[in-house]
Amino acid sequence: MNKKILFSALALSLLFTLGVNSALAQGWFHGRENFDPEKIVDRQTEMFENQANLLGISVDQMKEYWSAGKNLKEIATELNISDEDLRLKMQEGQKERMREGFNALVENGVITQKQADSRLTFTQDRMNNLDGQIGKFGKRGLKEGFGGCKFNKLDK
User: Fold this and answer.
1) Is the dihedral of CA 19, 56, 43, 3 positive or negative?
2) 8 Å CB contact between 134 and 142
3) Are 134 and 5 in contact (CB under 8 A)?
4) Which of 27, 100, 113, 118 could pair with 34 in a Cys bridge, judged by C-beta atoms 3.0 to 4.6 Å apart?
């Protein structure tokens, strides 16, 4: 169960990041005209910082783990961080990013504070009730992936 939750949280974060990157840039995977080395540097630097903060290690340590080809779960296991603790830390980080995003929308007059609070509550409730799945889209749901490939389960 913990593996399912952990992987779901990781997959959700990855999907969110990829979706935002695709929508904003149409870069790396869609041709060289949008290839911006500075954005790559910024994105990678931010990733190192976020993961280091999540694991409670230095950015230099995170870079060493990354260069050795270790993924987040392997690093957490090596640092004696349980799957549940890692999942909770990731969830808190996601909630904080959502709060920041909603606050920016409120500050720029896109939505009201009441709308932001309502959406934040809805989103947090949904995150708390995922039970090992990423979300439900269509008849089969996203949990079955594309072409029936199950990509949100650690054990399958």
Assistant:
1) negative
2) yes
3) no
4) 27
Give the tens place of pLDDT for each residue, 110-134: 999 999 999 989 988 887 776 555 4
**Angstrom distances, CA of residue 115 to CA of 57, 98, 108:** 36, 13, 13
CA distances from 146 to 40, 86, 120, 152 (A): 27, 27, 28, 11
Q: Rounded distance, CA 120 to CA 50, Å?
A: 21
pLDDT mean over 99-115: 94
Whole-angstrom distance, CA of residue 77 vs CA of residue 83: 8
What's the Cα-to-Cα distance from 4 to each of 94, 122, 140, rounded to whole Å? 17, 22, 18
**What is the per-residue pLDDT across 36-76, written as a single tens digit (0 to 9) for each?**
889 899 999 999 999 999 999 999 999 999 999 999 899 99
* Length reported for the chain: 156
| Distance, CA of 91 to CA of 156 (rounded, Å) | 22
Q: Is the pLDDT of residue 97 over 70?
A: yes
Say if CB 83 and CB 2 are below 8 A apart.
yes
Angle of the 83-107 helix axis to the 113-128 helix axis, nearest 10: 160
